[in-house]
Design brief:
Elements: E1 9-13, H1 22-37, E2 42-48, H2 55-60, E3 65-70, H3 79-93, E4 97-101, H4 104-117, E5 121-125, E6 127-130, E7 142-148, E8 153-157, E9 165-169, E10 186-190, E11 221-225, H5 235-244, E12 247-250, H6 252-256, E13 277-281, H7 287-290, E14 298-303, H8 310-313, E15 316-319, H9 322-341
Parallel strand pairs: 1-2, 1-4, 2-3, 3-10, 4-9, 5-9, 11-12, 11-13, 13-14, 14-15
Antiparallel strand pairs: 6-7, 7-8
Helix pairs in contact: 3-4, 5-9
């Protein structure tokens, strides 16, 4: 694709059962910022069937334009028709940048698009920016930053020779903008013929797994355990989380030790969270972990090591044995909440 003809930022709008995940709004907000730096517009591209009702919300969250492809072949996500439809939209629009959420669908679709249009793709980004005049590779390139070598270093990747510049971005690492009430985006409806012929997999049944676990990215309160738990039962953390109306999360060390499942992990190689309250129990505060929770509104740290780095970002710190402190804290919180409700 001719670099001189490419302009603007495209954001792929994933939707399942009429619901758009939060990462899409985060990407539109960040895409809007990138587009403004380039003097261009941000376009939300949505594929599916029965797409009425999305325009207002996408407009309010920053989309300057919305391109939709409505076809019965796109009702349920199947790789081939989605890849074909999005490829045609990109080739026709010639964007400079294309962003995807690093979700199951985004991670499946993005590399297929990059292969079809012969460009690069940076996966699982945690930061996006536009290069300045001091960059040796040139001004105006998309700087795509992601963890490398197990999260021990941060690598910034550029794509100077091909367009569009493409990236998948982890949910939770970007901030969505405040909704702009009454905003109206330009609506463009495109038709891609023969999408039904692209279906090479037949969906017989969609089975949804129901889980009682709260997504830690949605929780307002998180009680997180680390290596300092010493392999003990996370029950004391679960009890505190229950009293506070929150959920349990963990550091990478706790997950690697199989004390908690992977989807509970906070950090560069886990999830980025911004709860109202984050209680770090037995977590030293390695930079990889701090990157995933340092934007929490209130951070409480409990650690027996008074020099632990976690105390540098904590609003409140308790030095001592977490196995003694957490149960006492739980009881105090229970009493305080009970008195307030009385």
């Amino acid at each position: 694709m001719d670099i001189s003809q490419c302009e603007g930022v495209y954001v792929f709008v994933e939707q399942v059962d009429g619901k758009i995940p939060g990462v899409v709004y985060e990407l539109i907000g960040r895409g809007r910022g990138l587009a403004q730096q380039r003097g261009a517009k941000v376009t939300a591209v949505i594929l599916g069937h029965g797409l009425e009702g999305f325009e207002e919300r996408l407009s309010e969250y920053g989309a300057d334009e919305i391109v939709s492809v409505d076809d019965v072949a796109l009702k349920v996500y199947v790789t081939e028709p989605y890849a074909r439809a999005l490829t045609e939209v990109i080739l026709a629009g010639k964007p400079e940048i294309v962003l995807f959420g690093a979700t199951a669908i985004g991670r499946d679709l993005a590399p297929r698009i990059s292969a079809r249009i012969h460009t690069g793709l940076t996966a699982d980004c945690t930061s996006l920016d536009i290069s300045g005049e001091d960059n040796k590779m040139g001004q105006g390139l998309l700087m795509m930053t992601r963890p490398a070598f197990g999260g021990n270093v941060m690598a910034t990747i550029l794509c100077p020779e091909f367009r569009p510049q493409m990236a998948t971005v982890r949910p939770g690492v970007m901030r969505r903008i405040e909704p702009i009430k009454g905003a109206k985006a330009k609506i463009t409806r495109r038709e891609v013929k023969g999408l039904g012929d692209s279906i090479n997999v037949k969906i017989l049944e969609v089975v949804k797994k129901v889980t009682e676990l709260t997504d830690i990215m949605e929780a307002k309160v998180l009680v997180s355990g680390g290596r300092g738990m010493g392999g003990s039962d996370f029950g004391i953390l679960e009890e505190l989380a229950q009293v506070l109306g929150g959920a349990v999360s963990a550091s990478r060390a706790a997950v690697d030790a199989n004390w908690q499942p992977k989807d509970r992990q906070v950090g560069q190689t886990g999830k980025t969270v911004r709860p109202d309250l984050y209680v770090a129990c037995g977590i030293s505060g390695a930079i990889q972990h701090l990157a995933g929770m340092e934007d929490s509104k209130i951070i409480v740290a409990i650690n027996k090591d008074e020099s632990a780095p976690i105390f540098e970002v904590a609003d409140f710190g308790l030095v001592g044995d977490l196995h003694k402190i957490v149960p006492k804290l739980t009881e105090l919180c229970r009493k305080a909440i009970g008195q307030r409700q009385a």
